[in-house]
């Protein structure tokens, strides 16, 4: 089969790397791809956020299956355009993608279908939002989320009233997140460890493909502002068979059934962000695609061919109830540019990638990189993800940081505690 992978980040690099291991995959094309992906597949420099352009590419290249990595083209209806032309695409329609593209929709949907989540209020104006936080209804700390897509950065956990009011002003008055902050969702702050639960869905069925834990804050010990993710490890040691069965019963199946019942059947990767509260697992958020950096540590765990699962999910013919996963552990460390997450510095030469990849058990996935004058340079906020694999988390973490130690570029920043939670979970 000829496969088109849409996107150009580390998640898509991990997807391409995983698909190249499948026997039934013929040529892989990535649009637009990146220098790391270019070592594995043909890259075509198109705008991945333009559904018509991507569709034209798929038709021209006679693509059998298109796999969409990022959320933006999904929210813009790329799956709808492909369906109209009877071309197979793995990913949800724009209506189904609202689980991620609108926090307000997701919360109202969960209320309708009895899916456990934090208490919340959706606010349409600054005055309404200020009244909600000043009422004390949700106590402190309180969580404030921009309604729309904002690359994972528009979530504020306000520890006090002043911070909460500033977050409202930033989003709704100063439009820090653009149109994404026209509405905000205010929630009670749940407590407990966070996990990410991933599935492949075909419209009526969902099959778990693994778990991970992300590190969102920019600095060690979960300090500083939220980012798109500074590292992850997989699988989560917090999820056993009993908890997985409970998540499937109380959360996943009601979501899949609810989406089908509302005439927006969900096809694609479903990422359920969960808080393991004293009252049981509750949904923090949904993503309608693989996470980044979670994909980089999750996909290598899948020990059976990935392509048939994606084809079955896209076609609505997912017959199996489980996926064979390996027993190794993975830890991924994100290397970010100076200024991230508020800004980024591009054009800085990167050295040491080949040395890192020469270490046994280490893989390097490109995110914000480009090629200039024959050299790899930085081209975004999150630049690379360095992943270590091992028989246990200690070995995986050691290898990941050994790889990090080989790489350098001006302004490079990273967390030094990725995976530490996994070690504590085993104590």
| Mean pLDDT score | 95
| Overall body shape | globular
Largest sheet: 8 strands, antiparallel
Which spans have pLDDT < 50 for at least 5 consecutive residues? none
Q: Can you count the beta strands?
A: 21
Share of β-strand residues: 25-35%
Taking strands numbered 1, 2, ... along the chain, how are they ordered across the largest sheet? 16-15-10-11-14-17-21-18
Structural class category: alpha+beta
Count of alpha and pi helical runs: 14
In which range does the helix fraction lie?
A: 25-40%
Gyration radius over CA:
21 Å
How far the N terminus sits from the C terminus, by CA atoms, comes to 46 Å
Q: Can you walk me through this structure?
A:
The chain is an alpha+beta fold and 427 residues long. Helices cover 30% and strands 27% of the residues. The protein contains 14 helices and 21 strands. The chain has helices at 10-19, 51-60, 71-75, 78-84, 98-101, 103-113, 126-134, 161-173, 241-261, 294-298, 307-315, 353-357, 393-404, 420-425; strands at 3-7, 28-32, 42-43, 65-68, 89-90, 120-123, 142-146, 155-158, 184-188, 194-202, 206-214, 217-219, 223-226, 231-234, 267-277, 280-287, 329-336, 362-366, 369-372, 375-378, 382-390. The strands form five sheets. Strands 16-15-10-11-14-17-21-18 form an eight-stranded antiparallel beta sheet, with helices on both faces. A hairpin with a 3-residue loop joins strand 12 (217-219) and strand 13 (223-226). The longest helix has 21 residues, at 241-261. The mean pLDDT is 95.
